[in-house]
Amino acid sequence: MRTGEHIPLSPECERVARLIVDAAFSVHKTLGPGLLEGIYEPCFCHEIGKRGLAYERQVVVPLVYDGIKFKEALRLDVLVEEKIVCELKVVEQLQSVHTAQLLTYLKLTGKKLGFLINFNVPVIKYGIKRIIL
């Protein structure tokens, strides 16, 4: 396998990914841009649940550095089906630091797929970034 190539995701993972995107579209269609992240998160999770998917909000990821587990921890916004990390944003535009954040979360959790979802856009398709490790 060459650098930059990924092992394809399973059909099940792709199915869940499509449902995540659909849920984000539904929330954005109903609420539009301009609200706080704390408003979008419960609505997004409600839509995830309506699609029959399991999710966890504000998932604590322990901080382990140099073999030491610190009391400080990272928090994932939403973990769907124990396999896909969703980081929700409400920003003018996604920045490279947001991508770096999600990549770090994927590495630390051992997950392969994540989404950055920025609800503060006029058209939601421009606010969704899919990242595969």
List key phrases describing it.
133 residues, alpha+beta, five-stranded mixed β-sheet
Characterization of this structure:
- With 133 residues, the chain is of the alpha+beta class.
- The chain has one domain.
- Helices cover 37% and strands 31% of the residues.
- It is built from 3 helices and 5 strands.
- A 5-stranded mixed β-sheet has the order 1-2-3-4-5, sandwiched between helices.
Number of domains: 1
Largest sheet: 5 strands, mixed
Total beta strands: 5
* Neighbour order of strands in the largest sheet: 1-2-3-4-5
Helical stretch count?
Answer: 3
What is the string of helix and strand elements?
Answer: HHEEEHEE
Whole-number mean pLDDT? 94
Net shape: globular
Rg over C-alpha atoms, rounded to the nearest angstrom:
15 Å
Q: Could you list the spans in which at least 5 consecutive residues all have pLDDT below 50? A: none
Strand content is 25-35%
Helicity range: 25-40%
Distance between the termini: 14 Å
Summarize the structure.
By secondary structure, the protein is α+β, with helices and mostly antiparallel strands. It has helices at residues 11-31, 37-50, 96-109, and strands at residues 55-65, 68-80, 84-89, 113-118, 128-132. The two termini are 14 Å apart.
